[in-house]
Protein 1
Amino acid sequence: MSRKLPKKDVVIVGLGWTGSIMANELTDEGLDVIAIERGPWRDTPTEFPPNYAQDELRYRIRHELFLRPEQTTFTFRNKMDQTALPIRDWGSFMPPNGVGGGGVHWNAETFRFLPSDFVLKTHLTERYGASFLPQDMTIQDWGVTYDDLEQHYDAFEYLTGTCGTAGNLSGQIQEGGNPFEGPRSRPYPNPPQKQPFSHTLFAKAARDLGYKPFPQPSGNMSQAYTNPLGLHLGPCTYCGFCEWFGCGNYSKSSPQTTILPFLIRKSNFSLRDNSEVIRIDLDRSGKHATGVTFVDTGGVEWEQPADLVILSAYAIFNVHLLLHSKIGSPYDPAANTGVVGRNFTHQTISSVNGFFDNKKFNFNPFISSGSIGMCIDEFNGDNFDHGPHGFVGGGYMGQVQTNGRPIQSTLVPPGTPKWGAAWKSAVRDNYLSTVKPGTGVHGSFYSYRDVYLDLDPTYKDRFGRPLVRLTIDFHDNELKQNVFLTDKFAEIIRAMGAHTVDKQYRKGPYDSTDYQTTHLNGGAIMGTDPSTSAINRYLQSWDVPNLFVMGASAFPQNPGYNPTGTVAALAYWSAAAIRKQYLKNPAPLIHA
Amino acid sequence: MKRRDFLAGTAILVLSTMNSRATVISGGLPWTPNAGSPPVPVRPGPWHYFTSDEGHAVEALADRIIPPDPQTPGGKDSGCAVFIDRQLAGPYGRSDGLYTRPPFMPGTKQQGAQSAKGPAASYRDALAALDKYCQSKHQGKRFPELSDQEKDDLLKGLEDEKVKLEGVDGKAFFAQVIKDVQQGFFADPLYGGNRDMVAWKMIGYPGARYNYLDWVDRHNERFPLPPVSIMGRTDWSPKT
């Protein structure tokens, strides 16, 4: 039996980026808002101050700031006829935990998607014909357009002080920016970060090959910045401890640096940490949420009633809660019916390491930031003619090396033994003169009928609930895309002057132990048709109109960029719809 | 229980129920003086997890994975075995925080490790199997007593799966030792390896400095300052 708490206007499940944005927007409307967060409160002085934040073993190798798999994990298999087994330790992605969510330990790469990404199915069908797409590919239009989201992208970039060079200002292409991006209503709030040697060298080589390199849009500050809420960020010191780490300098955009100190002072906001929501409660009709049930660390179950429920956990945990709460029909890939769990996607990442003559090149790879780098966008989305190549999709690529942390950045040329005297001298001779872009090729992952989420029949979480089962493999379209992009990328690394290039193609089958990114998407996608989407264009549940589902679970497929800018823009877009439309008439905003 | 869960003040209300550690935060940022969780440096001294024989074997392994040379000590003298010992004695050795619920079923490589055994127990079993193998093939000699050439031949055999250890996946074990030794070599010295920052000096990594604002656009210049650990540097302490 759960104990009942006093009713609130709004309950928010998970206080990461989208939960924080929603809480701030809805408290501005005068609503009484409570956020319930599974993990602990996190702040800079306690958990990652500059005297011990730079600990590669503790934070990167042992995952100090992340969710513990014992708390909950997933099962995984490549194909529907395999038995899924639990992911016992994190590998290909790293779910966050705690206040701030992934915003605490991300790199802060703050991209927008291309206008064509939002109307992908229509765009590709018109340009290439429906028969150009693989038969089992299930891509869709989003139901929202770039123009709908522009002002909301802008709001997030100004909230977080994004540093960059605009490539398209109201339709005018700008020198030095990304010429392929959608039109911006105004420039970035801050100039781009300074670029270290190898990143600059990449830009020069790319320019010489005829590309248009641009600085990666960065949430690591190029200068001190005061955001519209009056919160201050300090200049980034290029310490080389960004992704996987919290920032000790208040230089990285995060809910902690850009929203929470403002939000927490509002009398109509409160936060309950260390409490895991296990269910969205429905009334007898099954069409109206009455609140949520959560469990605190003492194992005590509580009911938090509310008029409006905002689901803003990590993408796959949103889907987990929908499945356990029996909201929306679960996806069945055999019958091709149902929506919850449909169109699950990840990313197609690869890289090319470059080895240079150490008498001529000294890169000081430890001088870097999380979202530093020079990129090109010629091979992203549909920025190039796919006709001759036989695949769709693409990605940005660039020298986006974030660090020279020695446990993971001591590379040796191909053919070097893995240990012994030869390994040791190769490490010594190459550390300062190697380029290791990391996520150098950041490719898209489109959706397929047999890549999906459902509940596992065998393995359970600590509450005895079935784990989410991931069924995912790479399809030929993405593998072809990756070979094409990786080869193009290698040409640029070679042109920088590398004597040896080591191409690290992404190969199948999908491997749950090999880190790519934490950009898992889909499973509760947005759209215009309730038979193929779980939420409408305002992120409102088709089935339970007083439930809104944030996050990358809404992506019908994954474009070739980092997702956070779009995830945040969608949250602002949804918040605007709630403020302007829903609160006046709490009902479905779209009638299917 | 963490200290900040007990914070007093207006911001935090501890729910009035037994065993509850969930808190409600409102009104202002939670703050308490001297909060923090700085790392605890490893102390030299006896093995915490290994037996004496196991410790010697891991030292010998570490010295073949990272052999000493005139400029830089090897795996043993840089503390890699101490690093592994302290790691195995701690949460890592016990698989703390990982998903360890049954059933344990063999899977594909892509599904990741599915063993019920944590790293500490795996080391114990594999070191025993290695010892048994050495004694039977080398007239009762144990691994540290072999010549460097004999050691390297054996390790190459494990790598190529030509040497089989009884009841243990020798290839996977050696891959794990390589990973752990190299982590100890490059991690901050506070964990027991990388003694006196020898690995960082070898490659030119300046360590825990945290600020390169003045250096980001000084391209193709060697960074001139020596490394510093999270614990500081020995020459920062007053000489006695």
Protein 2
Amino acid sequence: MVVKPATTLPIGQRPPLLRLSHVDKVFGGEVVALKDMSLQVNQGDFISLLGPSGCGKSTALRIIADLLHPTRGRVEWEGAHGRGDLGVVFQEPTLMPWATVAQNVWLPFRLDGKTYNQVKDDVLEVLRMVGLEKFANAYPRELSGGMKMRVSIARAIVTNPRLILMDEPFAALDEITRHKLNNDLLELKSKIGCTVIFVTHSVFESVFLSDRIVVMAARPGRVLTELEVDAPYPRGEDFRTSADYAAHARRASEALREAMGEPA
Amino acid sequence: MSLAEQNSLPTDARDEDEIKRARADQIEKIAKWVLPVFIMVLAISGWAWIVAANDIPHFILPGPDRVWDSLVNDWGMLIDAAYLTGWITLAALILAVVGGAGLAILFNQSKMLELSFYPYAVILQVTPVVSIAPLIFIYVDSKIAGMLLCAWIVAFFPVLSSTTLGLNSVDHNLRDLFRIYGATRWRRLRFLQLPSALPYFLGGLKIAGGLSLIGAVVAELVAGTGGIGSGLAFRIQEAGYRLNIARMFAALAMVAAMGVFIFAALSFLSHLLLRNWHESAVKREG
């Protein structure tokens, strides 16, 4: 895989990648899952969609992935080639149990008609990046929950996609594994300089990971406000214990409380 | 007792619970073979005793010794018969796999095809094959073809229905993933649906194995002999007419053995194909 230089421009100077304009999604003619969502995603952004369940964050992700069509509004990609490559990580690792770790990571290439030998180096390279090079020939059932998630992440980044969508990927993991994976995810991002949209309902996760937090509210699902986390990358344990982090977390919590309809 | 003594572990570094569990496992492993054999010995002895004690004539109920004699003396004839029945069963099973899995894939690819033909597959399945068989032999000249058709009719449905279920039981996230990667229909079938369906298919195959033997036996009984040699079912019938009850039992034992063999072979195949990944074939620690 081509490792891009990992310099990420300041938020205001990033070239645009994708624009959602006034997107509505209505299910069955009456359930408004998403109302009037507008969002510009820029290259290099790490955006968290933060909100309570039912706020339409997964729906937004599915619309961006083209798994759902918006009822109203538009999704526009920058450039002539439309959407291009996407990487996706779901809440479950979503691995094929009958295939080895390496075969699972090969999948995006395989569906593009590439043989294993053509892309073997890339596959082994990303496995090394997520720390699983020794498990290339293991089957998913032999791995722990955190390791399976790493395979899932390796599969999402192996094609060096324009955008990576992550739908609460660490929600089902224990706190310690989650901590570790958050650190590793940032490290990966700084290595390959990808653009990420990350759905979560954890204030701390969103503050630690992202530089833009889009706070969403439920019934109907909508964007409430957007917060900027201007702490520089790379972020590590010292950021997690800093006053800056605490202040951002407080702002995000207050915004989330408002989103839940409680007084701040 | 000193502290050092308390802390020293026995040479066998397992605690009492583990030893107990290991012993229970071992006993169960032995019992799994010994108990059924014991029951069989008991049943055969009881059978021999009942026949001897009541002086039952052998044309009503032969003792196990006579059945054994028949098995030995008629071995040449019985093994020929078993060969024919086995051949029909195997061919029908192969056709059932090709037909059942093939139809399942076709139905999966075309909803219209499924809506059109699935009800007829069900009708074919629920109509007892014994009642269809005589008709088949009126219209199908070749006995072999007729027998294959009978056996196929009973055997293909479990393959069809379980494979259909399997093809539709794909993890929805994986399905989304394939869509996002723009997988072609063929690649989705090959890389996602077929592997997902494999455990279901193998479950259907195990049932189909037994059913194709039933189909073959029924077909033989209906077809009678016709210059193509005679299978086990025909031998049972024929021996019945001659009041050679011992041979009936001997042939019956061979049919049963054949059924057990088919089941064991298909279970083994299933284990080989699934042992790396499927829950049903994976042994857990502890």
